[in-house]
Design the sequence.
């Protein structure tokens, strides 16, 4: 068994959807060695091998596995978080046990969707980035035609929580993110 246990340590409002929550769980064991095997067997993962993160999209939710913790976004309540964590624990352990039968995949696989980014931008369409709207900015960002630092309002205290989630997502997908703004 690779992962023995997990514990929910933080529950925060989900900024992508105010009716939902974001959950952070600490885990008992280092799990990153299973990431390339999960990346090979699950559809639509975003794998960042150097950063040791794997984001799984499941039923509209974003589940990001780090070497030492797991974050869940767009979650209904703690009961649902527990169900998802139980599912992830089983998945991680089953995949780890079957790793000899799986060809590991170290590629980044799925790309970020502009809409995933748009939901985490300020959404004011202020044009300070010299784009006509936040959605236009998100489309350019996904295409790597503009950098996240051009969205000046995002760096204000008001958008700190949105910024944290967005930067985690961008970092996991291999985008340049100012290191001083990354979560530990
Ligand atoms: S600067 Fe940021 S908030 Fe303003 S339009 Fe551009 S992306 Fe939207």
Sequence:
């Amino acid at each position: 068994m690779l992962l023995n246990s997990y514990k929910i340590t933080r529950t925060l409002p989900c900024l992508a959807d105010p009716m939902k929550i974001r959950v952070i769980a600490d885990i008992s064991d280092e799990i990153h060695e299973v990431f390339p095997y999960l990346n090979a067997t699950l559809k639509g993962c975003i794998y960042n091998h150097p950063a040791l993160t794997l984001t799984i999209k499941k039923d509209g939710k974003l589940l990001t596995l780090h070497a030492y913790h797991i974050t869940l976004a767009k979650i209904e309540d703690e009961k649902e978080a527990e169900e998802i964590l139980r599912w992830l624990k089983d998945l991680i352990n089953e995949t780890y046990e079957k790793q000899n039968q799986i060809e590991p995949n170290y590629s980044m696989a799925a790309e970020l969707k502009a809409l995933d980014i748009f939901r985490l931008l300020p959404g004011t369409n202020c044009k300070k980035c010299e784009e006509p709207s936040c959605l236009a900015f998100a489309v350019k960002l996904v295409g790597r035609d503009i950098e996240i630092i051009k969205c000046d309002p995002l760096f204000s205290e008001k958008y700190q929580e949105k910024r944290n989630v967005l930067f985690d997502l961008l970092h996991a997908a291999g985008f340049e993110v100012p290191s001083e703004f990354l979560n530990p």
Remarks:
- The helical segments are 35-41, 78-97, 114-118, 134-142, 160-172.
- The longest helix spans residues 78-97.
- Strands lie at 6-13, 21-27, 46-48, 53-58, 61-66, 69-75.
